Amino acid sequence: MMTARPESWHAALHRLQRDGRPHALVTQVTSAGSTPREPGARMVITEDAVYDTLGGGTFEWQTIAAARQRLAASEPGMTLEAFSLGGRSGQCCGGFVNVLIEVFPGSRTTLALFGAGHVGQELVRLAAPLPWRVLWHDSRDDAFPAWAADQPRLACRASPDPEAAVAALPAGVHALVLTHDHAEDRALVDALLARGDTASLGLIGSKSKWASFRSRLSDAGHGDEALATVRCPVGQSGGDKTPYAIALAALAELLPLVETPERGDQRGLDPADLRRVLT
Predict the structure, then answer these.
(1) Does 12 have pLDDT greater than 70?
(2) Which one of 57, 181, 243, 260 has the fewest beta carbons within 10 angstroms of its own beta carbon?
(3) 59: domain range?
(4) Model confidence at 226, in pLDDT bands (50, 70, 90)?
(5) 250-276: per-residue pLDDT in tens?
(6) DSSP secondary structure letter of residue 96
(7) Could you tell me if 139 and 99 lie in one domain?
(8) pTM
(9) Interatomic CA distance for residues 57 and 36, integer angstroms
(10) What does the alpha-carbon distance between residue 245 and residue 123 come to, in Å, rounded to a whole number?
């Protein structure tokens, strides 16, 4: 079984929550008889790491397996697991515990932002409070501001090759293209359309810019259906052409396109399970 990392569960929880990474928080909520740890013991589990411990042994291994099964399903929520240490877990202490597993699937939305100019910087600032992961690209090594190093859920990627930058993206990203160079913009849109798996694709510019791009992209083999998915121009802010206004408008256009998980009437723990534990 994987050894727990030296980082404490609460430090790991803070870091993973800040970075929007998938993880599970496991809490021992009840104990009966002889058990390795007491109620309140916690550990944090990711797909490839464990932080802190519930005492080790088969019981802990089973808890880790249950948490990772839920992480693989990417479904947020809480579940209760009951362990008879002499039965299910085969441990000699013979006690009984209930464990609460809380799954945090991480950021459900990834924004791929191409361009670290004035509008790009305002967009990153405005998106900071949102639970999105932002992959910020620019072909220039020195384009990213110093403050970007401390922003959560933000990864800065300097890449002079548009095709390589697009190839490295995960599937289902929302992409905004607003670089300093029209040729680079066109190469990025070409590569993004060729992938065909972006959740949305926006391009900064003007109607005349898009007319020119559309003609050349059509000549490159992209059909009308694919070209119709490109939103251009993005960030139409009326008469205000300041970077902040354009970024604000672009983000407002993007928000309705981002999926929000549906909530049912019943949320949290099943009441029957909770009553069973408390009584």
Answers:
(1) yes
(2) 260
(3) 9-106
(4) very high
(5) 999 999 999 755 555 555 666 666 566
(6) E
(7) no
(8) 0.75
(9) 9
(10) 10
